[in-house]
Amino acid sequence: MRIVICDDHQLLLEALASALAIHGFTVEAAVDSPAEAVRAVALHDPDLLVIDVSFPVGSGIDAAREVIARHPRTRVVMITGGEQSGPLVEALAAGVSGYLGKNQPVDALARALERAWQGETQIDADLLRQVRHPRAKVPRQRTPMDQLTAREQHILRLLLAGMSTRDMVEELGVSQSTVRTHVQNIFSKLGVHTRLQAVALLAGDARVHSSEVGHAVSR
Predict the structure, then answer these.
(1) For residue 5, what is the enclosing H or E element?
(2) Do the Cβ atoms of 3 and 13 come closer than 8 Å?
(3) pLDDT, tens digit (0-9, with 9 covering 90-100), for 95-122
(4) Domain map of the chain by residue range?
(5) Alpha carbon distance 171, 215 (integer Å)
(6) How far is CA 77 from the centre of its chain?
(7) In whole angstroms, what is the distance from residue 105 CA to residue 26 CA?
(8) What is the DSSP letter of 59?
(9) Nearest of 91, 77, 112 to residue 7 by alpha carbon
(10) CATH: 3.40.50.2300, 1.10.340.30, 3.30.450.40, 3.40.630.30. Which one for 2-132?
(11) Rounded distance, CA 94 to CA 171, Å?
(12) Overall pTM > 0.70
């Protein structure tokens, strides 16, 4: 079988080309961009294009769609690293003959490519399972800092660094009354009354290092 391979990771590209050649494939071209893949298919008229999904520039799915439209004899198999199941539906809609993970052994990949060339659609079982049963996204837990405005968060960091009201006036270029108002708003939102309590709350542990607390409270 004559194939063109396209992947932007040079080492993987060369390794895959060598491994598939050992398994009996004739590698007509090994290129590193979707545009080059389209040109290589036009030049070599291969039986199969094996192309990555993601590239820094260009889209593997767009290249697959173009090849399928212009060169219907050439079948396209997409490969992906990690767990990128998201583009699977789009790739199948484009008419690809396979969508496979890169983490499988070369002999398994070679068998899948053979079957794709023979007309059997090959889809990585793990990626297909993710599309059918997507993992629920775990919402990010809110923290006390989420209640504060950006300005209040800045002032709180200055407080915890041990700055006095006078220090913050010089640092921020505002009046003492403005600083005090912000501090009171911070304490109110956090449900605390002192710097020590604020340190303990944000550290997630009331047993704050005595040297750090002493520095923060002494001001």
Answers:
(1) strand 2-6
(2) no
(3) 999 988 887 788 889 999 999 999 888 8
(4) 2-132, 144-218
(5) 18
(6) 22
(7) 19
(8) B
(9) 77
(10) 3.40.50.2300
(11) 58
(12) no
